[in-house]
Design goal:
single chain, 144 residues, alpha/beta, 6-stranded parallel β-sheet, 16% strand, globular
């Protein structure tokens, strides 16, 4: 359990480093973290990677926004985050929670998107044609 927690705790920094490696400086970029919850369909931020992800992005000068269908804009703002509404321009999206709503997202929902980092493997690659889509985690595939 401790090993899994340590691996999970390292993921936010890893995701942000991957974005930085691909795009260069994140300074001034609009980055949305999709999911404040620690997992899909659960309104709970305990153990969520959102805090470390937001901190890592802010430390690199990104303008960070947070979206979560379980929370109101006021609740997100109460955590000190700028709420994001689907359809607003964004440079980078990082999927942090596997909410079912994120499975149907497309470039129409995230106009201007230059990079999608899906840490939960919930997005549909066919909906992001022309945009680099990286997945993170998931371990090794099971043997056939």
């Amino acid at each position: 359990m401790a090993t899994a927690r340590a691996a999970n705790a390292a993921m936010p920094e890893y995701a942000v480093s991957r974005a930085e490696a691909l795009l260069g400086s994140l300074s001034g970029l609009r980055v949305v973290v999709l999911g404040a919850s620690y997992r899909g369909k659960v309104k709970e931020t305990a153990f969520s990677g959102v805090f470390a992800t937001v901190d890592a992005l802010r430390s690199r000068g990104a303008h960070v926004l947070v979206h979560d269908p379980m929370y109101t804009d006021d609740e997100l703002a109460g955590h000190g985050w700028d709420p994001y509404s689907l359809g607003e321009p964004v440079d980078v999206a990082i999927v942090q929670a596997d909410h079912p709503e994120y499975a149907t997202l497309s470039t129409d929902d995230l106009p201007g998107l230059r990079l999608l980092l899906d840490g939960r493997r919930v997005t549909d690659p066919a909906r992001f044609t022309g945009v680099p889509r990286l997945t993170i985690g998931g371990g090794e595939p099971a043997p056939a």
